[in-house]
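Holo prediction. Input below; ligand is pyridoxal-5'-phosphate.
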Amino acid sequence: MSTSRIPFLDLGAAYAELRQELDAATRGVMASSQFILGPEVSTFEEEFAAYCDTRHAIGVGSGLDALRLILLGYELGPGDEVLVPSNTFIATWLAVTQAGAIPVPVEPDPLTHNITAEAVEAAISSSTKAIIPVHLYGHPADMDAIVALGRERGIPVIEDAAQAQGARCRGRRAGGLADAAGFSFYPGKNLGAMGDAGAVTTNDDGLAERVRMLRNYGSKVKYHHDVPGMNSRLDSIQAAVLRVKLRHLDEWNERRRGLAARYIDGLGGVEGLVLPAPAEWAEPVWHLFVVRHPQRDALQARLSDAGVDTIIHYPLPPHLTGAYAGEFDSARLSLTERLADEVLSLPMGPHLSQDDADRVAAAVREAVGELQTSAVS
Ligand SMILES: Cc1ncc(COP(=O)(O)O)c(C=O)c1O
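Structure of the complex:
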């Protein structure tokens, strides 16, 4: 068994596995000189829409832009409120504020880390103009009930599917579960580019058309600008990379599932350690494997000493960041703040070996045991 350091995620191994395909695909774009939009982007859009079982996929510059373009496409603006999870990556909130609207935080269910229909219903007001559930850590939010609420009130429901490429909720894939979805293809995502990239998926023809225009200077025909758009096009080289990696996504997600099962086996019954608990209707894709422990920082330090790299997703919830200083002082989000103090993401990715997952689990068991002993002595 190897004793080398276990990285949180091994992107070098991902490239090594697909090197020939990726090199050929990117060289093809360079040889074609079709650097902006063009056939790689439109073919990726078709393939990704088919994968998500949606009518449209529109390639954009990043996951943040995908969400922002959807909100702009729905013409949200000043005074409009958007329900967002209180415990998400800051981009979910930034998309809202950059569209001119107001994020209204909703606390998650502590087991799935996702917002529930009950919490959404309690937070809806007459100013609510959209709802953005996040499929956090690759576990889908319970979309059917949230979408039903949105339909009842005439409010669009937008999936933040940045962490959930390939995940399913009651058999249906993320991206096609609500009115629209924003994806990130940041390199560390389950479907990751070799730079920034993102996509919008939707079955709404009108929204798709507006997002297509907005991402490209508000233009359908070159140099004719119908709306004040922006420049957020999926890069053609990234589209070529994504086309290669999409072909491997299901198999790579399967590897993640195997590793998650191994962690759950190896870490069951460790006192004080809370493991992820997927809902029975969910097929998560384990973008992250997140455990909770009341002495998280000490656990992380001990794991690092044992050669295991971990990351915290996320050490500060958006309302406590400098970006929103002074804006949410009256917000009472105690569960979210506790989760931020307790969550720890263990190494996870398609190139983590099963032996290394077993080493991680053994190191976690040992570290938690030591923490318990030092607490009683
Ligand atoms: C939940 C969530 N939403 C949005 C984003 C934004 O994606 P990007 O980094 O591609 O802008 C990310 C990715 O980092 C994310 O994890």
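The pocket of pyridoxal-5'-phosphate is lined by residues 62-64, 88-89, 91-92, 134, 160, 162-163, 184, 186, 196, 198 (CB under 6 Å). That is the main takeaway for now.
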